[in-house]
Design brief:
Chain lengths: 443, 443
């Protein structure tokens, strides 16, 4: 859901190059991964009660070490200021006593969620008497590569532990001191509970080559989740041989159908665009059926403009803009852009087909919404728009794990493999087929 | 499930290199993929009845074109003989009238299976009144890269179509003439039913660079499934930026526990090793608890040796071998080898822990079985062995889609992401979140 990314792009070009890893760092990171693998086995068979008590213990330890963490964070902040970090980034990097408490509380909330491990996904007795079950089990070793916000360190560790996995963390260098202190606190708390400290390991000490070694530790790392901006995610996807889940890019559309109630449509686009900008489920383009344009667009553009949204429109849109609202001409770049800001592209389309075609051309497959009173139009939109989430008469902002009742969320996947849309704890597990027989052999 | 692979390894080294694709071929293959994407939209909203009728029409067309297909196949066989292809491979490449009928029948069996598309995976009404459903939908475009057996061309097309996907085929050059003819027949049959021929496309004409372009067509191809030997699979995994599902490597273990009934254990290892060699769910290593060794191993080794199984054993095993049975000393290479032949490694272990540790060290995570009468031992084995399938008192040969009641199978996944173990039609789908509101906005 976050958008800023301070890992510089690597020097290696484009989609087909993979950087050569450093042999020494590779060996060290593989050793880290092997220790994670070993530690993960202890957790794989832990009960939910044991895991939840551990999450509470980690939360307690963080609060107890709050002073230490804030001191380490001050070093990161000082370095950030020296390096000219923006106020926004500095704010996201900042930890205070209250923020540490909030981070610890997130672990306690995780403890309250059901445990996905052990769930029977399918099961039956086969005609030959074999008893077959498909059970949810932990992945094993999960890697997380993320940007500077130090809360992600705790969040990632908590999500991994709750789902029975060991975690290897690679945080942004801007938060190095905070992350080191937090990791040390978490590891000590694990040990104090008789669990392997190696359930939580950091490879920050190995710098960028360490990150590359992690991406290529196939067979040792079961899943890699990048959390951060588009550049970070692209880099991880392109350079990994380890399975990756791509998260977060949202070029999100709201389509106002011919039959839409204008007031509802204004409410939905205002919520989708302005309730929180800079998140992946915020709207970036508004499509309006020409039959609805005259009764909807003037009010919508006035409301959006009044809320400080910078507007780019096609000719049909600009013709309907109130005089008080500036709408600059939209280009293909506007249709392609995830603004992540108070900025919106607006286009009048001649039909539902044209709206669907626009979405097919420009969407990143995250979330699209239709506002309509026409059942057939809603059904076609749902069937033909190929995105992780499709909303009918609801804001795109609902594409969110907690809003959809899944509890904590690792991210929003825009890929089709393994997880699509909000990813909860279950998406950090895999399955195992367990078959019981009585000496059954295959005829 | 197949094991021989006639794509030569590429010249590009190891796990971190990716070959540079050919620009012209890349553009052509991307164009193919775009046409597949377009065609897939037509199928995505087709009913099960329409898809099943199409599968029957394809089957009819294949049988009608049987003569043509067998003639084309004769060209492949002649080329194979010229190139010194082994008898086994020639047999797998051969198509006869009867074999074409069998291939067509497989399409009719697919038609009889339930349609995964449209299944509601999860659904609820949220406290705020939003109605939320997670539905199964087709992936979109599925790529298949496979070896010489031309039946895979039909099989892959059928599986993809039944699950609502367009398919791009890259077959082995050894079967080029057969595959070209089959693809032409399938495409014509699709058109005759008013469906886009581009639902089934081949990129064989673009040779190896075409395969590489397919592996790197991220964003255009939703899933790539390699079917073939270990080299093919490794190449695809390492060179792809498109999501891949790894299938098929099975270094499979049978562990005979201290409490095992010796007769049951002999039946299970005989079935697991000899019922069919050369398949990924056949046993490759037999582990025997030392307490069971004396009453089990002499009979087991005699039975295995009598069935022509070449045996490699540790010292404990060799000491218990009947005089008539030769057991050569086993090395680490034996523990690591997936023989895919009438050959077995045998080791006596001192405990269940030692057996689990051996499996952790050497298994490929496909299938392992325990033969035991001890409940606690069975439960520890199931919990601690981290493989796609774990059998208790049943042959490892049951790890198979049709044996486990899933119907047709695309392969057996040994990875943890998206699909683990036998992959059926559902594994060729993804999900879509569909949310209905009444003007809901996020507070």
């Amino acid at each position: 859901m976050t958008t800023t990314f301070e890992h510089a792009a690597t020097a290696t070009p484009g989609p087909v190059g993979r950087p050569q890893p450093d042999a020494e760092v590779t060996a060290a990171v593989q050793d880290v991964a092997r220790r994670s693998q070993k530690a993960s086995r202890v957790l794989a068979t832990a009960t939910r009660a044991e895991k939840d008590q551990t999450l509470h213990a980690l939360a307690d330890a963080l609060v107890a070490a709050s002073g230490e963490i804030v001191t380490a964070n001050a070093e990161d902040l000082a370095r950030g200021r020296e390096n000219g970090m923006s106020d926004g980034l500095l704010d996201r990097l900042t930890l205070t006593g209250d923020r540490v408490v909030a981070i610890a509380d997130a672990l306690r909330e995780l403890a309250a969620l059901p445990d996905p491990v052990g769930e029977v996904v399918r099961g039956q007795t086969l005609p030959n008497g074999l008893r077959m079950r498909q059970l949810r089990v932990p992945m094993g070793v999960v890697g997380m590569i993320y940007e500077a916000r130090p809360n992600v360190t705790v969040d990632a560790a908590g999500l991994a532990l709750k789902s029975g996995n060991a975690v290897i963390l690679r945080g942004g260098s801007a938060a190095a001191s905070s992350n080191t202190t937090i990791t040390t606190v978490l590891r000590a708390a694990l040990e104090a509970r008789g669990l392997p400290a190696d359930l939580v390991q950091s490879i920050d000490a190995y710098g960028r080559p360490g990150g590359i070694a992690l991406m290529q530790a196939r067979g040792l790392v079961d899943l890699l989740v990048p959390r951060g901006g588009a550049d970070l995610i692209r880099t991880v996807v392109e350079q990994s041989t380890v399975p990756v889940i791509e998260t977060g890019t949202g070029n999100v559309h709201v389509y106002v159908d011919a039959s839409a109630d204008p007031a509802t449509a204004v409410e939905i686009i205002m919520n989708a665009k302005t309730q929180r900008v800079g998140v992946c489920n915020a709207a970036e383009t508004l499509l309006v059926h020409s039959d609805a344009a005259e009764r909807f667009l003037p009010a919508a553009l006035a409301a959006l403009g009044g809320a400080g949204v910078v507007l780019h429109g096609d000719e049909g849109t600009r013709a309907l803009a109130p005089e008080s609202v500036e709408v600059t001409p939209a280009t293909d770049e506007d249709w392609a852009t995830e603004y992540l800001a108070a900025e919106l592209a607006v286009r009048v389309v001649g039909s539902l087909d044209e709206a669907i075609e626009h979405i097919r051309t420009w969407s990143s497959g995250h979330t699209e919404a239709i506002v309509t009173r026409d059942l057939a139009a809603s059904e076609r939109f749902v069937a033909e728009v190929d995105s992780a989430a499709v909303m009918v008469n609801a804001s795109t902002r609902f594409t969110d794990g907690s809003q959809l009742g899944m509890g904590a969320e690792i991210g929003i996947s825009t890929q089709k493999l393994h997880a699509r849309g909000p990813m909860g704890l279950a998406e950090l597990t895999t399955t195992k087929w367990v078959v019981h027989g009585d000496g059954h052999v295959r005829p």
